Amino acid sequence: MLQWDATSLITCAKFQVDGRLVLDYALDVAKIVMTQEVQQETVEAGLAGGYPDAMEIKSRIDTGRIEVRTVALRSASFEEVLALYGLHPGDKAVVRLALQAADVEATVTDDRLLWIVLRRCGHEALFLPDFVEKAVAAGTFDAPNGQKLLLALRSRLPVGFVEHSLRRLVRSNLDGC
Fold this sequence. Notes:
With 177 residues, the protein is an alpha/beta fold. It contains ten helices and seven strands. The strands form two sheets. It has a five-stranded parallel sheet. Strands 2-3 form a two-stranded antiparallel ribbon.
């Protein structure tokens, strides 16, 4: 099971490849879990703002394809450290779930600070393009579909992330990178 943060979910619910939401391709790879705080950011706030991606995410929650979990606060000293990072409430909840749920293999994000905090806490974190690469490596998507997915997401990700992954998918010599 993979945990997703708000921005990655929203991105995947906005873009399509071959008439299908990227979110549905992601659900072909693994079940998605999110915290209630991420649901608040992606669904409740999105519906209030009239965003179609919010309805898409809600639909997958309603059908059980995306699971929503509550998370407990950690120790006072750990919560103090989270506060020092300046993470948003939803991102703090993502870190808590990563540390509390043994069935969460990794967290998919496109937030660099969240990625760093998760890694520093000993949890596997994947940038969205890395998630696509892993799915191609596992055979869930072939390389041409992986490339299409990456290109569909390009406008929402920092420059270099997609281009790096595209080159890795075609096995270009990247000097070990």
